[in-house]
């Protein structure tokens, strides 16, 4: 009898621990979204203060740290989406702040890059203009109950932007090639989505 009680206690303890872990996992996507916003602001602060607060760093170290911070922040976007889908942890907070955090990250990186004169101001204007325009169309499509399927173009666009910004932050010699690809895919995917919206 004591053995059976001990076994039941251990089983109960296991499932209680598992349940607590699941609750933590359901909060993790929102935590990663908040972390992405914090990292974005730190990245902007780093880029704007390379010659003051961070003057003890060499240009090489500043470039590497800023690019790694950006890439890690971009990775949190992939992780929070995966966890939210896998563990059914989608929330209203995530629906609102996840896309907002993405735009804050891109905006922070581009503001710093324009300040450092590594990219022409029209490039972030085009990329961010497209992002906000398509976000507006998505809201309209949802309100009008239009079903516009997501295709691979959007994923290619996102990857190209991350690679381009990472290359610019690392100050790579041929980063302009990645920037050109990102601008092309950004505009092309935006035009493609707009056409699908008006045809649906």
From TrEMBL:
Pathway annotation from the record: Phospholipid metabolism; phosphatidylglycerol biosynthesis; phosphatidylglycerol from CDP-diacylglycerol: step 1/2
Gene Ontology MF: a single term: CDP-diacylglycerol-glycerol-3-phosphate 3-phosphatidyltransferase activity
EC number: 2.7.8.5
InterPro entries referenced in this protein's UniProt entry, alphabetically: CDP-alcohol_PTase-I (IPR050324), CDP-OH_P_trans (IPR000462), CDP-OH_PTrfase_TM_dom (IPR043130), CDP_ALCOHOL_P_TRANSF_CS (IPR048254), Phosphatidylglycerol_P_synth (IPR004570)
GO terms for cellular component: membrane
Locations listed in the record: Membrane
Transmembrane annotation, as ranges: 27-48, 60-79, 100-116, 162-191
Single GO BP term: glycerophospholipid biosynthetic process
Enzyme class: transferase
Keywords carried by this UniProt record: Lipid biosynthesis, Lipid metabolism, Membrane, Phospholipid biosynthesis, Phospholipid metabolism, Transferase, Transmembrane, Transmembrane helix
Reactions mediated catalytically: a CDP-1,2-diacyl-sn-glycerol + sn-glycerol 3-phosphate = a 1,2-diacyl-sn-glycero-3-phospho-(1'-sn-glycero-3'-phosphate) + CMP + H(+)
Membrane disposition: Multi-pass membrane protein
Family designation: Belongs to the CDP-alcohol phosphatidyltransferase class-I family.
PANTHER family noted in UniProt: CDP-DIACYLGLYCEROL--GLYCEROL-3-PHOSPHATE 3-PHOSPHATIDYLTRANSFERASE 1, CHLOROPLASTIC (PTHR14269:SF62), CDP-DIACYLGLYCEROL--GLYCEROL-3-PHOSPHATE 3-PHOSPHATIDYLTRANSFERASE-RELATED (PTHR14269)
Protein name, per record: CDP-diacylglycerol--glycerol-3-phosphate 3-phosphatidyltransferase
Source species: Helicobacter pylori (Campylobacter pylori)
Gene of this entry: pgsA
